[in-house]
Amino acid sequence: MRVISTIAYSALLLTSALIPHIASANAEAPTALIEKALGGPIAEAKPAALEKALTTCVQQDPKDADKLIAAILQSGRADVKTLAPSLVTDAIKALGKGLTEGQLMSLIYAAVQACPDAVLDIVAAASHDVPKDLVQVIVSAAIRGIPDPYKTVEYRTSPNQPGVVETLSEAIIDTAAAGGGISDRAELVAAVNGSLQGSVQSPSALGVAGDSNYGNEPGKVPTPTPKPPVIPVVSK
Predict the structure, then answer these.
(1) Of 48, 51, 152, 230, which has fewest CB within 10 angstroms of its CB?
(2) What is the DSSP string of 87-107?
(3) 95 CB contacts (<8 Å, ≥6 apart)?
(4) 148 or 5: whose pLDDT is higher?
């Protein structure tokens, strides 16, 4: 059995606190930009129009891609869970070859925080649209963004297959591995462990000022003794 350790999860909580909250004092600005591109309210726009408006706004202001997608997903629309995956992939495509790990981290984190019920769909869609070496960034951001990484869910590889009960964090890893075409799940788990510690994805790489002790810790995560809290990741 492989696990995401208590060290990594503590780092997860610390880094989540460091990521700037998407609802800043200028929270209305992204909404205004989207509605200007739409020519009307977000709540009344058709999905295709929203996707086009988001793409336009992200291309014009790529540094605020996370805030722009959050403006749509926090608008109160009833269809945000359905919209979230396609909006994330639209934003990724709009960022193009200039996409950085920090932008991707912030984008996924913002989308998952705004619509946590859609996390697996977001991860599946995003993992399919980035290079394999960025899939671990998606997983790390998604785990940081969900309210409860220990929540148990029934994970299915297909609708016709029996489900497997596992933690939401496990399901995120499995979903990302499938979406990103990653056959070595253990390698992804190890990379995510390192990222959550900060040795792979430090706060400075996220665009967050300052440094922290955990960012200087070794990247190799030891297998801890079975004491809670841990996020179990069962080898498949």
Answers:
(1) 48
(2) HHHHHHHHHGGG--HHHHHHH
(3) 58, 62, 65, 103, 107
(4) 148
